[in-house]
């Protein structure tokens, strides 16, 4: 019960604070941009499907990998700021 | 006074832990990312009423209309419907200027036979569509029965995987007959587990039962009270069993029970044949199977109790305290029970976390990530092409297909080489 009360209290406070933030919504222009991108992508996909998918997969992987590496570097930089005992 | 040797050992232990700091953070980061990407977190915000149509007129297609309204965002490529019958056709429409506009999205199987279903969740792929929040949308589906048997199609708009909050008001004049709930509505349960607390919205959770008991029949008893102010007959309750490892789209309805009485305190004896393997979640809907009087409504909340039959191998809801049986006078056991009661988080805490997660994904900055993720999910190369390129079959078979495979192989090889060079230069 103690644990439940503590978590409930934390969640309630967080919910209240987060609830103060405005709700984000997709704009039609942003959504349409992706839809249009899909239509354009479909053109080469008609006759060279493997290459099209491969390029997308490689770009997506590269973005994910570099983002992950950057994230790691940031965490690493923060860790280095921690005081240590030697 | 601390022994210098122990002090040195403690320092060594701290240093060892410190040496694993990157791994620890990497594990936390990876788990965090996976939790972050939980598809259930990105699912619907649309919570409107539950519409249905129940017919028993063989060969006659019946259209049901569900108003979604304005405010929808995100991209959707699938709609889930519960159904019984032979044909289900469906599409999204934009409604403006007092008329239905061109179908903005249709089921891939529109006009075709998509199978015979018996109270199952039917995931229907539709052509990918990105909502415009300023437009008013309706979901129309037609059910078709060729066998002159009871045919139903029903679904909740919350099964539409997209973002935003639908607002069906103000109702367009031409749709006034559809903006109010009709036929069958979602019946919100407040289910009390065998040992756990109340769980909202008709879904209960349980740990296990585990192990495969393919042919076991598990009797399930529901007792509930409800407000039937209009004196309608509510005579069927349907259960769906969710494998909690997967998301809702993969679930299947496993059982259905019928009540023989009306009024307060219905007892449902539901024979379920459940392949018991892994963790499951039950959900329950009350359905009116009366084939006439489609205006019957179930509008009130209900409190039901849920109990499992003796064949179930586990009755412990998730996050409820483990059952500890103490013999008389066992003080240590009593203490253990007290500590479990004191420290074990309850189901409602877990539910509050779920609600918090749903809130977070609609707020900045996490909400922006989910908007991007939803849009990226809807990005597909198989949508209708901007320019139609027609290539003779022979030319495609002889030139483009081999070229496609060959260049793809070269691309992957190049990628492997460049990626290796990149990784070799990374200094952690």
Description:
Chain A is mainly α and 86 residues long. The radius of gyration of chain A is 22 Å and the shape is flat. Helices cover 80% and strands 0% of the residues of chain A. Chain B has helices spanning 4-19, 21-36, 331-343, 347-360, 366-378, 393-424, and strands spanning 50-55, 62-73, 75-85, 87-96, 99-106, 117-130, 137-144, 151-156, 163-167, 189-192, 198-199, 203-206, 217-225, 236-243, 252-258, 266-273, 280-287, 302-308. With 428 residues, chain B is an alpha+beta fold. In chain B, the strands form 4 sheets. Chain B has a 5-stranded antiparallel sheet, with no helix packed on it. A 5-stranded mixed sheet of chain B has the order 11-10-18-13-16. A 4-stranded antiparallel sheet of chain B has the order 1-8-3-6. The interface between A and B is large, with 55 and 70 residues.
Secondary structure blueprint with pairings:
The complex is a heterodimer of chains A (86) and B (428).
Chain A: H1 2-20, H2 28-45, H3 49-80
Chain B: H1 4-19, H2 21-36, E1 50-55, E2 62-73, E3 75-85, E4 87-96, E5 99-106, E6 117-130, E7 137-144, E8 151-156, E9 163-167, E10 189-192, E11 198-199, E12 203-206, E13 217-225, E14 236-243, E15 252-258, E16 266-273, E17 280-287, E18 302-308, H3 331-343, H4 347-360, H5 366-378, H6 393-424
Parallel strand pairs in B: 10-18
Antiparallel strand pairs in B: 1-8, 2-7, 2-9, 3-6, 3-8, 4-5, 4-7, 10-11, 12-17, 13-16, 13-18, 14-15, 14-17
């Amino acid at each position: 019960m103690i644990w439940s009360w503590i978590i409930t209290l934390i969640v309630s406070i967080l919910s209240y604070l987060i609830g103060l933030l405005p709700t984000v919504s997709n704009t039609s222009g942003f959504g349409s941009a992706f839809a249009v991108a899909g239509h354009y992508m479909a053109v080469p996909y008609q006759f060279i499907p493997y290459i099209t998918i491969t390029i997308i997969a490689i770009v997506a992987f590269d973005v994910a990998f570099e983002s992950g590496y950057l994230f790691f570097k940031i965490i690493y930089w923060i860790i280095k700021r921690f005081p240590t005992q030697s | 006074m601390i022994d210098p040797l122990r002090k040195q050992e403690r320092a060594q232990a701290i240093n060892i832990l410190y040496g694993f700091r990157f791994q620890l953070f990497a594990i936390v980061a990876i788990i965090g990312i996976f939790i972050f990407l939980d598809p259930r977190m990105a699912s619907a915000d649309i919570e409107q009423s539950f519409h249905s149509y129940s017919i028993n007129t063989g060969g006659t297609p019946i259209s049901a209309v569900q108003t979604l309204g304005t405010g929808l965002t995100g991209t959707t490529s699938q709609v889930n419907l519960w159904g019984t019958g032979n044909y289900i056709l469906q599409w999204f429409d934009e409604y403006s200027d007092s008329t239905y506009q061109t179908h903005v999205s249709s089921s891939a199987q529109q006009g075709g036979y998509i199978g015979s279903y018996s109270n199952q969740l039917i995931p229907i792929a539709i052509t990918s569509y990105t909502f415009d929040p300023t437009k008013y949308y309706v979901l129309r589906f037609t059910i078709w029965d060729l066998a002159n048997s009871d045919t139903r199609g029903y679904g909740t708009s919350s099964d539409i995987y997209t973002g935003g909050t639908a607002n069906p008001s103000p109702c367009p004049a031409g749709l006034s007959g559809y903006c109010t709930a009709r036929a069958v509505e979602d019946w919100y349960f407040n289910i009390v587990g065998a040992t756990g607390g109340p769980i909202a919205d008709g879904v209960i959770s349980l740990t296990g039962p585990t192990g495969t008991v393919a042919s076991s029949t598990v009797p399930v008893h529901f007792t509930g009270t409800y407000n039937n102010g209009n004196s309608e007959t509510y005579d069927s309750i349907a259960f769906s069993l969710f494998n909690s490892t997967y998301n809702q789209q993969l679930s299947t309805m496993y059982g259905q029970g019928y009540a023989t009485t009306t009024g307060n305190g219905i007892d449902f004896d539901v024979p379920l044949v459940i392949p018991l393997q892994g963790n499951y979640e039950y959900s329950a809907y009350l359905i009116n199977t009366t084939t006439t009087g489609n205006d019957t409504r179930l509008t009130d909340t209900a409190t039901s109790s849920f109990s499992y039959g003796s064949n179930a191998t586990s009755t412990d809801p998730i996050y409820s305290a483990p059952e500890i049986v103490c013999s008389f006078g066992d003080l240590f056991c009593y203490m253990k029970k007290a500590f479990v009661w004191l420290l074990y988080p309850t189901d409602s805490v877990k539910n509050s976390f779920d609600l918090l997660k749903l809130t977070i994904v609609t707020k900045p900055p996490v909400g922006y990530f989910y908007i991007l993720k939803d849009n990226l999910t809807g990005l597909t190369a198989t949508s209708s092409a901007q320019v139609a390129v027609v290539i003779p079959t022979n030319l495609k078979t002889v030139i483009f297909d081999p070229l496609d495979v060959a260049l793809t192989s070269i691309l992957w090889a190049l990628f492997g080489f460049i990626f290796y060079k990149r990784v070799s230069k990374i200094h952690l």
